[in-house]
Amino acid sequence: MSDTTNQSKALGYSRYLKIQELLSLQEFRSDPPEHDEHLFIVIHQVYELWFKQMLWEFDWLISSFQAGDRAMATSTLKRMLTILKTMVGQIGVLETMTPISFLSFRNFLESASGFQSIQFREIEFICGHKRPELIQRHAEDPEACGRLQKRLDSPSVWDAFCQFLSDKGYDIPRELLERDLSQPAPESTRMQDVLLQVYRDDSDRRQVCELMVDLDEGFHEWRYRHVKMVERTIGMKMGTGGSPGAAYLQRTLFTPFFPDLWAIRSRL
Ligand code: HEM
Fold it and tell me: Is 34 helix (H, G, I), strand (E, B) or coil?
């Protein structure tokens, strides 16, 4: 067999990673193409890939909790935090685009907005920020509704974490272990009592708690950097997704995913 035939059969970098397909996915809406629209498309696509990777790791984290594997949960959380740092840092790349430059193609986006990102909502749901009413917004996309519904009905990271502590013998309130998973977990003073015990007596699980706080704070950082980027790019104009824009985003800034882990700080 000749070398050329061997090469065409070999898997190789491009075929393995589907580079040709990947590089054909950046389609300008502006005509003639506006220079910065390329960056705008690429950065959103990169974020969607990171969201996908984060969901992959979230599922792994939940399985680790369910298996009682603290070492795996810890290393997974550390990886997720590293990804999150990258995600926060990438906002700076988009901030090199001036408001005027964004305006040159903004109209071509029509109603498209990160507001409609299914994976972002999946991340919120998996973190326990469950809002069943958000699913209706995607009524025209049954596949997306199915994915969101599945996340809504499945244990969140917080549910898996509570179970993990319960399996270790901690007295987790029953209403947290046997609850309607499609609703957000309620804040619980009794859960906070358990967490205080963990913080005082159990350094291994305290480390896991602190990594969960880092994760929560990391998403806050992303939201903060995103809203500041929005303010400097479009001011207080309405969003293309139809919301009041920065005013809406500011309201999302201070809702923690794991409120009990924050509440205990005043009681330590
Ligand atoms: C020039 C760049 C950007 C601008 C001006 C912008 C603007 C906005 C605005 C105004 C909203 C509120 C919803 C609406 O559209 O009415 C929003 C939401 C959102 N954007 Fe962006 N955005 C930008 C870049 C990005 C990037 C790169 C991502 C990464 C995926 C992203 C993800 C999101 C998400 C997930 C939401 C929903 C947030 C929530 O509901 O809590 N945005 N954006």
Answer: coil
Q: Whose CA is nearest to atom 25 of ligand 1?
A: 114
Both structure tokens of 220: 């806050």
Exposure string for 114-145, b = 16+ CB within 10 A, e = fewer? ebbebbebbbbbbbbbbeeeebebbeeeeebb
What secondary structure does DSSP assign to 57-78, as a single string? Answer: HHHHHHHHHHTT-HHHHHHHHH
CB-based contact 44:27 (threshold 8 Å): no
The domain defined by 33-267 folds into Methane Monooxygenase Hydroxylase; Chain G, domain 1 (1.20.58)
* Residues 65-90 pLDDT 10s: 999 999 999 999 999 999 999 999 99
The CA distance from 141 to 136, in Å, is: 10
Protein residues whose CB sits closer than 6 Å to any atom of ligand 1: 43-44, 47, 94, 102, 113-115, 117, 120, 226, 230, 233-234, 239-243, 245, 248-249, 252
Q: pTM for this one?
A: 0.96
